[in-house]
Amino acid sequence: MDEAVKMYELQRVDLTRMKVVRRLQQLQALLGESDELRSARQQVAQAEAELREWNAKQKNAELEDKSLAERIKSTEERLMSGVVRNAKELEALQQSLEALRRHRETVAEEGVKAMTEAETLAEQLEGYRSALASLESGWNGNQTELREEETKLKHNGALLQRKREQLAAGMGETLRDRYETMRKRKAGVAIASVQNGICSACHVAIPTGVVNGLRGATTLVICPSCGRYLVPSNS
Hints:
mainly alpha; 4-stranded mixed β-sheet; Helix Hairpins; 4 strands
């Protein structure tokens, strides 16, 4: 029975280590930016890019409007100067002036549109940035907690590893091999406790004779149902 107790103590450590490893794996998935946060960042970046584009269009419209205003003024002055007397040239100048004016109107409309779009985007961007700041604040706090948990789990994992090495060293090589073999075959549970005549692993009632002989057994006892090694519940 001493062999079963040693095996059961080692399994307790192994099962706890497995829980620690699984939680660390979960933390690895949780650490880092969430999809929601990445989406919020992308939304802000896209809005910023669009805002820069509309601001550039507005600026270009203002510059072009200024250039057109100068050309219109120059053309008007030439028409009014009396220097040009030829009828065809005067007609051409008049047509050019009208075209410049129409073009300026179009540019002005484009400038107004760009300004309107930029103002709308600026308001939207403010909301996006506010939402992102809120997400980042919550994320930073959560990340701190997760990092602290990760540090504690790694420390506990190291302690459990040393405990396992100590327990394994106290077992003979044959017993360790039997434990490891059964552990691999039985999904990490090589030995089960018997509680009220029931195997804690497969939850099947064990014959009374097996239960009665378990405490005084000098060799490992196997559950007739699941094939795992057995140990009394108070071990």
